[in-house]
Amino acid sequence: NQQILLINRPKGMPTEADFKWEEIPIPQPSEGEVLVKTLYLSVDPYMRGRMNDSKSYVAPFELNQPISGGVVGEVVESKAPGLEAGDIVVGMLDWKKYQTVSAHGVKKIDPTVAPITTALGVVGMPGLTAYFGLLDIGKPQPGETVVISGAAGAVGMVVGQIAKIKGCRVVGIAGSDAKIEYLVKQLGFDAAINYKTATDLRAALKEACPNGVDIYFDNVGGEVSDAVMTLINPHARIPLCGQIALYNMEKVAIGPRIQPLLLINKALIKGFIVSDYAERFEEGTRQLALWVKEGKLRYEETIVDGFENTIQAFLGLFSGENLGKQLVKVAEP
Ligand code: NDP
């Protein structure tokens, strides 16, 4: 058995030296617990924030303790009613190959409904983030223009497709030509822009959004957002989902002063955390799964093989290695 510990609080971009792989025994489940074998684990941008020793909506990871996050695993031994060996479960678990957990800490998933990896992506936390952020804060109306940054990632890809379902003009911003092509050709986005190669991002956006921007779903922050904000329409809504461009900055630069534009356009900018919607997760999961089944919601997963490559997969989020949800495959069921 193995686990991955955080051993340093990274400054700027983390490196593999901030983590340690440790050999540990396979534990025995007690009454009410199950022994879970990790099959897939999720690496997520928000984990970078938990590596800092600063107050946020989730507590920091503790030094010399295992990282934890979304995991899909197989029950190999059960001492809990309702779960038996062979069941597939999802939960917030440690980065360990094997671990015991209270049966209340995991949720059983039905592998016949959708591939088990989707519990960490399109019908899991990222899908729910897209669903509630766009529908509850963005409130898209047919014919409106929706711009999404981080558009080819786990959350962004779902946002754009839901906005299409709602009858909007959808414009994505992402960091490679392959991603741009995927968004337009495979997902039916109306336009997409490569922010890394655009010589004038604002001009490219203006061309893609002839009627301005009614909703800006922000996954990245920084200069990309500064450019979008200059094009917002009166009564624009801005679900503030993520700020990945800033997560590794030791000092956050202040961009152009956009506040007067927010003011005169009476725009709404609202930060949110997906767990705010915990009471509605069942509704969201059901709707996302239905759209997937109906073929209205496509998904993409980038899967790195091997527990030893977990940190590399995590760091890849910051250089845009992933199309759709980034996962690590740890073991075969
Ligand atoms: P993604 O799958 O979108 O992966 C991250 C992507 O961000 C990369 O693929 C990369 O794509 C892009 N990126 C990385 N660095 C930069 C940069 N400097 N500038 C612009 N783009 C960059 O991750 P998720 O879908 O899981 O998360 C997306 C965002 O949503 C994150 O900011 C995350 O923190 C946030 N989030 C918020 C939640 C909430 O509850 N509020 C819940 C879940 C996620 P590219 O090639 O396009 O650069």
UniProtKB/TrEMBL annotation:
InterPro entries: ADH-like_C, ADH_N_2, ER, GroES-like_sf, MDR_fam, NAD(P)-bd_dom_sf
Domain of life of the native organism: Bacteria
Molecular function GO terms recorded: oxidoreductase activity, acting on the CH-CH group of donors, NAD or NADP as acceptor
SMART domains hit by this protein: PKS_ER
SUPFAM superfamilies associated with the record: GroES-like, NAD(P)-binding Rossmann-fold domains
Keyword DNA damage: no
Entry keyword set: Oxidoreductase
Short name of one Pfam family: ADH_N_2
Keyword Oxidoreductase attached: yes
Stretches assigned to the Enoyl reductase (ER) domain: 16-328
The protein's name in its UniProt record: Enoyl reductase (ER) domain-containing protein
